[in-house]
Amino acid sequence: MSFLRAARAALAGQTCLPRIFVAVVVVAILAGLSLSCSTTKTVVPTHSAYVSLPATGSVLLLSINGANGAISLGGRTPQQEGLSPNGMVLAPSKKFLYVVNSFADTISIFNVNSDGTLSLSGTPTPAGAGPDAAVIDPSGQYLLVTNNFGNNNAGSVSVFSMDSTTGALSEVAGSPFFANVNPTEIAFSHSGNFVYVTNPGIGMVTGFSFVDGVLSLVPGSPVFSGAGAAALAVDPSDQYLYVANPSASNLPPYTSTVGNVSAFNIDPNTGALSSISGSPFTSSVGTSGPTAIAVAPTGNFVYAVTPGSSSSIWCFSLTPMTGQLVAVTGSPFSLAAGGLFALFDPSGDYFYIGTTTGIAGYTYNPNTGAPTAILNSPFSTGSEPGSLVFSQ
After folding, report:
1. What percent of the chain has pLDDT over 70?
2. Interatomic CA distance for residues 179 and 199, integer angstroms
3. Cα separation of 145 and 161, whole Å?
């Protein structure tokens, strides 16, 4: 429909054109759109996703209906005691799934079969102490894993090169890299030049530059975000970083609201972070602070989510020129949510939230940001999920 609006705008500017010509052009555009929309609706891909189940030591295969976002369950990997699989990431080739085993201090590598099922590849690769989250750099060459523990509570980030043929991991020279106290969540800038991790125990964010697998602290790192800094997301333009602070207190008139969202400018040359005017931003109501956060693929909305179903989904519009956040009409939304993860599917049509029993799914209004529950949501996964990844 955005193409149609653009066409109308273009035609409106050509006031000297004869009316009949304008009418013909509009009819032609509408006809083309009708054919295009019809084709899109009849060929809707259904794709796979994977969710880790820490309590059962397994990974569950999911099927995502591209037409309505509904989730159906597939098979799961054999249960293995003492692993607690949590963070996961899929190789760009879609041939390998890397799963971080928090209790075992290892990384399992699974081959992704043609039907989406998984088969374990060799023995798990040793990781750091208390590995948690994982991410692959935009070039597709390196796997990064946060390690919660270390000497004197000094956490770290391990960096591995990935063999594109076998999926095997090789730790790079200098790894693991110091990342302050108990690093948990990790995110790349879309350029791949910078990496950011949360340090919930000290309410801070540690930033790195990233070159050929080597991490170097950016100027001024770490920066204070807020109590319990738990999750983070970079906007599509790579200008802004948003961090969910679940335990932070707020100034009047929001003293009764628990938690907030810090917003930072990202220096495009150094990766250094500086607070955006008005930050932190919070909800008008909220007894539980947000522990997961996501930016809509369009870059116009930021969602911070909390456990439960009361004032659980905070939605803000993102001001492109400044990065400031403004609560949308109706926010916070009292809908089933959770604080385990929050992410959009590859199409950008659906928004998924990890709850204590499964996954809540939503569509969202591209103009207002308001979420609407997918039919039969939330979807049970049998036990509490750890993280979710999509095959596309």
Report:
1. 88
2. 8
3. 12
CA triplet 62, 63, 67: central angle to 5 degrees?
145
- pLDDT tens for each residue of 110-140: 999 999 999 999 899 999 999 999 999 999 9
Structure tokens, 35: 């054919």
Query: Would you kindly state where each structural domain of the chain is located, as residue ranges?
Result: 1-43
Question: Closest by alpha carbon to 200, among 246, 169, 239, 242?
Answer: 246
- Please name the residue that has the structure tokens 């009819």: 27
Residue whose entry in the numeric block shows the structure tokens 């976002």: 69
Give SS3 for 320: coil
Degrees, nearest 5: CA angle 381-386-389: 85
d(CA 21, CA 4): 17
Measure the CA–CA gap between 343 and 135, rounded to whole angstroms. 14
pLDDT for the residue numbered 9: 35
| Whether residue 88 has pLDDT greater than 50 | yes
Phi, psi dihedrals of residue 194, rounded to the nearest 5°:
-135, 150
pLDDT, tens digit (0-9, with 9 covering 90-100), for 244-266: 999 999 999 999 999 999 999 99
Tell me 6's DSSP state. Answer: H
For 319-370, how does the pLDDT look when each residue is reduced to its tens digit (9 = 90+)? 999 999 999 999 999 999 999 999 999 889 999 999 999 999 999 999 999 9
Q: What angle do CA 120, 124, 125 make, to 5 degrees?
A: 135
* C-alpha torsion angle, residues 333, 338, 342, 346 (rounded to 10): -90
